[in-house]
Amino acid sequence: MARKNASKLKPRPDFPLTPHASGRWRKIHKGRPHWFGPLDDPEGAEARYRHQWPYILKGLRPPPMPGEDEDIEYTTLRDAINLFLEMKDGQRDTGELSDRMFHDYTTTAKLILEAVDGNRDIESIDLEDFILIRKRLAKDRGLVSLGNHITRARSIFKFTIDDGIRREPLHYGQRFSKPKAKSLRIEKRQRPDKTFTADQCRRLIDAAPNPLRAMILLGLNAGYGNQDIADLNLADIKTGELSVARGKTGAPRRAMLWPETVAALEAALEVRGTPKPEAEKAVFVTAYGNRWRRTAVSGADDGHKLKMSDAVTRAFVRVLDELKLRVDGRGFYGLRHTYRTTVDSLNDRAAVDLTMGHDDLQDMRGRYVRPESIDTARLQAVADHMRAWLFGEEGGEGE
Questions:
Q1: Cβ of 87: how many Cβ atoms within 10 Å?
Q2: pTM for this predicted structure
Q3: In 10 A of CB 175, how many CB atoms?
Q4: At the N or C end, where does the chain have fewer CB atoms within 10 A?
Q5: What is the pLDDT of residue 399?
Q6: Dist. CA 116–CA 99, nearest whole Å
Q7: Which letter, b or e, does each residue of 370-384 get, where b requires 16 or more Cβ atoms within 10 Å of its Cβ?
Q8: In whole angstroms, what is the distance from residue 169 CA to residue 388 CA?
């Protein structure tokens, strides 16, 4: 529509809307057109404009006009996030996404909605909002956790583009970037040491009742963390060996077991609880029939409200307190840190990675050294090295 003809269509010179070739009245805000009705109804279009424009200027979703249905083309930030979570929930149902990862996505989503009004139009979310979101994500957490939240937040907003929920490009700006590697290194140096000495590890093993003793030995023998313990199934345990894909990444994982670990696992099975159907295959079952770490739905009416229950941490902390070994930031996962720190002195990175379930394709060795090429002797060497560190002579390495 030519500009000179457009002015003729306006019912008066100060009419706030502009006619468009599509046959509708429109007004542009922040580069995005907003539509208010057909050209043959200027009075209705102006009434709709007067009603909606104050909300649009604030980036809010206008309520429908009296007697009109809500505009289904207007997607709020909350609606977009719920669509993302529904997609992720479907992946959780098919086993493509873990309960823990789904829990992490919902946590990030809630923090986004705490920073920005969920009734805002998804198209209106811009640089200033991402600054507010990053500030909320950073509150009361370290830089590693902040970086993880930013990664998940970017996934949420990328979904809105990929699925056509948002039409305009996203502009995060540099102030929504993840923490720099230098800052992460500085923070890491300032954090308390999460590892245990060999003497402390032996004291933990001696003080822990089964099945916790078996869990501690798995942490030290094979670098098992809390979720690894909970995910371990009966079929994963072979004679003197563990062979399982790590649930967190799906990476293959193998480790040779010490005689002490095998004996502790046998003793743990003797005190195994009666499992509920979802824990029937688990090695470790609580007295209530659950896996020792699980994500539970806390609200029957909202599947997005999840609560993490970690019996591994609770049992381990009790032993730490009993031995007066409790240190802020050091828990059961510290056994995995201890394992990695100790076996890193071996000149066999590929074998160590296989025992831990690491699959580093960023490293060229990860591209060419396949897990199936690592023989049992190399895995046994890793296990023997860790066992010598743990059960060596008094005053030896690790004291």
A1: 14
A2: 0.64
A3: 11
A4: C
A5: 42
A6: 26
A7: eeeebeeebbebbbe
A8: 57
